[in-house]
């Protein structure tokens, strides 16, 4: 296949982005392993600073490991709720913010801050670009999953230090995000937080010039 | 358009990811403004923590502003070169790592760490997810540009504090990356750093289970 793309493809790409959601409500039927492997292949095509490819993935499968992560989420979510005031707190408490109790596939994603790959190129003045590379890879993975009808929910309501301890993660690995993956209960082109009235998307991108 | 995608679309999506490059060699002919605006529209479809949409964009257009950013890059690149040893340094010095002297469109991208949008949801225990949201949005933009035949080069060899000062950026804005955009001199499915022998991509994704 060449590097040329048609107007029809671009329209479908826009639709893919419109229908990509952060999913928190999953059906419990399993994701075929070969399908998951095919989607994970998108990591190899992701941009990374200096070609450092610093992404590291732990599949969280055992009931023990999942229980520790779910406890972590519940404690962090209680603290986050305590930080919301008045009507916000009531509204917050009614939101479903993770599918960690149900999602058939769960991945903890890290950035290896110590990797020698790429020989430091591009990361000398901005070492955070290694973590950004992992985020870019997850973004591609998200799109590829959605193109297969699969949903991804990115959980950030977690204590990273506790998660790294509980999962016995190497010292140099920074926690980036916890991904819940599975078949979504429903499909929608509007974010759940918008449907629930928590926040709405901007209508236009603001840009200044220098 | 629905949220259903065909095997043919998925194949073309994989090709798009295969042909997306970090571009440092641009033709100097301009990018039509309506095309650029259409591509920038992808920011509105990006995921963001709590729907906070913290991306802020400065278009760097004036010769004065471009000159300051290019000086910044050259100084940071000299420091990065000084940090490479022996053969690495020679090899590093021969790489072209930015198109800032030529690219017709240049954008400095920031994250507004002070935004009230999203009411802090999802960012209490991991405030860095705001910056990650900006990275995800840039990743979508990158794909949409490439689908139009346009190239993007993400420059991180910069001193963020100096750049924020030079461009008179609000205090709460964190610098994420400097994007060079234009028509690429050439198209390739292999990263330039790999073609130049600096680093190669991994052949498989490593994953452990917990």
Quick one: which chains have the greatest interface? A-B, 104 and 104 residues
How far apart are the termini of chain A?
40 Å
How many domains would you count in the coordinates of chain A?
1
Rg of Cα set of chain A: 18 Å
Strand portion of chain A, in percent? 5-15%
Any guess at the CATH architecture of chain A? 3-Layer(aba) Sandwich
Q: Report the biggest beta sheet of chain A as strand number plus sense, adding barrel if it closes.
A: 4 strands, antiparallel
Q: How would you describe this protein?
A:
The structure is a homodimer of 210-residue chains. With 210 residues, chain A is α+β, with helices and mostly antiparallel strands. In chain A, 38% of the residues lie in helices and 15% in strands. The first copy, chain A, has one domain (21-188): 3-Layer(aba) Sandwich (NADH Oxidase). Chain A has a four-stranded antiparallel sheet with strand order 1-2-4-3, with helices on both faces. The longest helix of chain A has 20 residues, at 63-82. The first copy, chain A, starts with 6 loop residues before the first helix and ends with a strand. The model of chain A has no long low-confidence stretch (mean pLDDT 96). At the A-B interface, helix 1, strand 1, helix 3, helix 5 and strand 5 of A face helix 1, strand 1, helix 3, helix 5 and strand 5 of B.
Chart the SSEs and their pairings.
2 copies of one chain form a homodimer.
Chain A: H1 7-19, H2 33-40, E1 55-59, H3 63-82, H4 86-94, E2 105-112, H5 129-147, E3 151-155, H6 160-166, E4 173-182, H7 192-195, E5 207-209
Antiparallel strand pairs in A: 1-2, 2-4, 3-4
